[in-house]
Here is the input.
Amino acid sequence: MSKKNKETQKKHPSARPEKVKEVEVQVQPLPVSEVPHTSTIIKPEQQMMIDKKSYEKELRRLQVELVKLQEWVRTKGLKVVVIFEGRDAAGKGGVIKRITESLNPRICRVVALPTPTDREKTQWYFQRYAAHLPAGGEIVLFDRSWYNRAGVERVMGFCTEDEYSEFLRSVPEFERMLVRSGIILVKYWFSVSDHEQERRFQARIANPTKRWKLSPMDLMSRSRWVEYSKAKDENFAHTDIKQAPWYVVNADNKMCARLNCIRHLLSLIPFEDLTPEPIQLPARQADQGYIRPPITDQTFVPEIYKAENPAEDAQD
Here is the structure.
């Protein structure tokens, strides 16, 4: 090699020819961004301070918008899937209830699957969930989903290491496939603090109408708080993908969590107001000789409760 070429390589090391080595390609977890989603960065002057009264007013306004969204989804034949995950007592059920209470159950339905049967345990893992995916014009809300494998099944040892590894490998591709098929996939993780979860558990224990919400699995999750935290972190590292990112909801305050989640959901799907125009009721058909059978021939529910003012009635 000439003296000139040697001097050039000293000045520019990148110009030196490198020996090509064969490297084994390994699948690495997707990095979790340390920067929060831009939708969570709100300036103080843009925030709304709420109390119980303003919460109910704003919830009502958002529910009207949900009805508009529902009509848009139905008319345009959209397919929407919303996943609700998070710790026990984080408030997922409360948000789902507020979303659905004003919507048509034929269009917006909730899927909350029980423990898999012996037959389902032998199926492809995503098979029983895929059966509940929406057709055109439908919204499906998953109250827990295929992410059971990354949470309770992982921590409680209900799946093998191989099954867990295969899940983390498969779920990003499964979700990308759903998105490519035209499904709008939204994933929410409800985050609740240690102190607030304990307070809610104690409130359930004290309330006979809510004790059913506390299962032995809930108590075990409480005793394995750190293990669930690690499982959630590992889950996010693999499944917080560009096509279907995780949106974390601060759920320490139920009122704020409900409003923030619903408002965010509405912002993700552009829609227009297709509310039908007011209609006029037709006149009732004339009796034309119809004679009603005697009331005594019918069995009525005992009227234990009577209205003091018959003009007052529930508006729903």
Notes: The chain has a mean pLDDT of 87. The two ends are 90 Å apart (CA to CA). The beta strands are 79-86, 108-111, 138-143, 183-191, 246-250.
